[in-house]
Design goal:
Elements: H1 8-35, H2 37-48, E1 49-54, E2 61-62, E3 69-81, H3 88-102, H4 106-116, E4 123-129, H5 131-142, E5 150-158, H6 172-175, E6 177-178, E7 184-185, H7 187-191, H8 193-197, E8 201-206, E9 219-222, E10 230-232, H9 236-253, E11 257-263, E12 270-276, H10 284-290, H11 298-301, H12 311-321, E13 329-332, E14 335-338, E15 343-346, E16 354-357, H13 358-363, H14 367-375, H15 381-394, H16 423-430, H17 439-450, E17 454-455, E18 461-464, E19 467-468, E20 475-476, H18 482-496, H19 498-504, E21 510-522, E22 527-542, E23 550-559, E24 563-565, E25 568-570, H20 575-587
Parallel strand pairs: 2-10
Antiparallel strand pairs: 1-8, 2-3, 3-4, 3-5, 6-7, 8-9, 10-18, 11-12, 11-23, 13-16, 14-15, 17-20, 18-19, 21-22, 22-23, 24-25
Helix pairs in contact: 3-4, 3-5, 9-20, 12-15, 14-16, 15-16, 18-19
Length: 611
Amino acid sequence: MPGRTDSRLRLLVLLGCFVLASSALVARLAWWQVIRRDDLAQQARLQTSLRSEIPSARGAIYDRSGVVVLATTVERDRLVAATDKLTAEQRREMADELAPLLGLDDAGTTALIARLADPRPYVILARGLEPEVSNKIRDAVAAGRIPPVGLESEPTRVYPQAGGGPDSTLAAQLLGFVNRDGGGQYGIEQRYQDVLAGSPRIVYAQKDVNGRPIPETSLVTDPGTPGTDLRLTIDAGLQLAMEQELLAAWVADRATSVSAVVMDPYSGEVYAEASYPSYDANDYSAIAAGDPSRFLDPVVSQVYEPGSVFKMFTAVAAFESGKVDTQTKVKDVGTLWLDHHHAKVDDADRRGKGWMTFEDAIAYSRNVVAAKVALGLAGTTAAAATILHEVWSRFGFGSPTGIDVAGEVGGIVNDPAIRPWHQIDLANGAFGQGVAVTPIQLATAFSAMVNGGTLVKPHVVAGVGDRNATVAQPAAVLKPGMSPTLIKLMNHVVTAVPFYHDRTLIPGYYVGGKTGTAQIWDAKAHDWKRNLFNYSFIGFVGRTTGHPDIVVAVRIHEGKPTIARVGQLEMPVMSFELFRRIAYDAITTPGLLSTPAPAPAPATVPATADR
């Protein structure tokens, strides 16, 4: 009789395996259905729904009054179509019908035809449609002249104020613009992007077979926060008047560009700031395709050799060193040989004026005298270079001013501690060659010279929402009592020289400043540009004697003189004439200046400045 083949132990082992396998399956199922439930549900939602970020209402930008709107956001339509549902004939008919409704030229019509030829379920044909254009398109659809299309509302940034020149909006380079994705580009729009934009609204919605959201299924998971309005320090009326002056000078002088900035020397508030050529921020895409360099703001983003306006900083170094005062006599010899006769500097007319007071040498802008004074700051060239460079650095050259716009550059200043200066480097630096700065740096530095000796931080935003903007405390850069001497020196420039006197002074106001004319180096040709110069004037105007109220910096870039002789380079509109026009517009702008005028604040200088 055969033996039994079953075994209790075998059955127990087999049962244990089944129990173990079942437990593993249950544990795995619990893992997916309990522990990973939320993750799996989220993945499922992502496969069948869309996550959308809807921009919040962008904050508006106002001028200093809080009334004039410089930038705002409006709802406009975008035109969309399911081009994959259109026949070739329908596409041709649609292009013929839409082109005149959209006001397209030949290039625009060609681009529209190309978009219609792309067979997709969702194609954007046009953006930023005005309400009347949208209504005409609806009428064309209703009349059966074009197949059904979609008109979807979208926010569009608008700059409603016309600029001072053709095809421009007010303060375009200062404001910047907003791209199609809602990102601020350049200027204030970029610098204050987070403040203006706020945070977007997050919406989930189921999507249809074409991948588009189904409105009825929308779920808001984050309501977002609206953008905050900005109130600027800019006066819209003065800004417009200044832009008109820049355009006139640009045309008359056949210049590459003309720039200016008007600033309160005590607070750092920028009342007006512009350059020409400018652009229309409502049509930034056309500029991007043709000349994107126009987006850069030359006042803060472009450096140049300023020329003789820098003689005022040589004067500061000389006065602080005790080597020279305004009445010190210095012999002007017309040409000064340096570095063992390997280099030289010339006066503009190459004629020496003989012995003259230092204040007259500054007024008549004598390069040789400025070079002699700089070389005499100390016993060696290295020591004198250190003194002059320290003055430049103290006044902010070589570093950004910190103005609250995007794209500011710090300029180019060679440090003699890194690369020792020769005599010619020191001499050239004494009258503003071999150093590169921005107009906003010059306006800020001259403000320090006339406001009692403090380096203010220039700024263009006065308020964020209902709060006043926070401004950094100014830094002392001059000894107390130095400002009156520098103010008188700048007033002497425009009163002592008939060439300036007749075209700079404003009857009834106290005026001062310094001119600068500089050659322009052509890096490609490795030579100076012929008959092209940078013309500058940095000055002040005040309602009372000895007290500047406003600082104005003017730059005419690559101006072409109509009279070009040794010692005489004249244009139809000189830099100091342009200064006078802008300064008069500023000083007479209603409500711009505080009343009465504040007294200059005394300054306490750091030890490095007290020589």
